[in-house]
Amino acid sequence: MSNQVEGVRDSDATRSRGQKMEEGLRWFSDFFFRPVTWLFGNLGLSPNLITVFGLAVGIASGYFLAVGSVPLAAGLFTFAGVLDIVDGYIAKKLDRITVFGSFLDSFSDRLSDAAIFLGLMVYYLELGEGVYVGLSLVVLVTSFLISYVRARAESLDVHCKAGLMARAPRTILLLIGLFFNGLSPWVLKVVLWILAVLLVETLIERLIEVWKALKE
Fold first, then answer.
1. CB 132 within 8 A of CB 117
2. Mean pLDDT, to the nearest integer, of 45-49?
3. How confident is residue 9, by pLDDT bands cut at 50, 70 and 90?
């Protein structure tokens, strides 16, 4: 019994702060959106079909953000996030987890991220806010680099989940900025600064994590 407890402690100790936070956020999302996942789970839809639908909604969110419809973009972005939870839930429930499904899910995540941040760039370009066009670009590039570093590290059998800004927390942060942008445009701007700083922190932490693992 003591060995089992010790093993659990060791496992918990090896997880990064970001990993623990992401797991907590995913648990909360799974619990909060359980009625939706139950509904989709009983429709008998293919997980891959839901993933593609979620991608289409994410791209639509980026489009409406680009044309200045921030509340609509926020609503669609939320729905896309829910579908991102649902496809994984249904794949597990129906025992239809496949390698291609995992690949499609990761691909759709990257494309959805690109759509929303490109939408932000166009949005701020129309407003003449050059600083925030550049900041949106920094967030986009850094988030892609974080995903690339993790994928490349895992192909080398290196654990790589350090840093605070995994996809779940950065999605929630961005949603806060989009939803409260109507109260004050500074909310979204502050969120972008926070995202930029923490994404750079996450990228550096993951690079260090990989360097330490590979130098041994």
1. no
2. 80
3. very low
How would you label 115-126 residue by residue, b for 16+ Cβ within 10 Å and e otherwise?
bbbbbbbbbbee
Name the more confident of 46 and 131: 131
On whether the CB atoms of residues 143 and 203 are closer than 8 A, the answer is: no
pLDDT at 8: 38
Active site residue 109: yes
Q: Choose the catalytic residue: 105, 109, 113, 157.
A: 109
Answer whether CATH 2.30.30.40 is correct for domain 17-215: no
- Domain limits of the chain? 17-215
What dihedral do alpha carbons 69, 62, 52, 26 form, nearest 10°? -90
pLDDT at 77 over 80: yes
> Cα(32)–Cα(200) distance, rounded to whole angstroms?
30
Q: How far is CA 151 from CA 21, 26, 115, in A?
A: 20, 20, 21
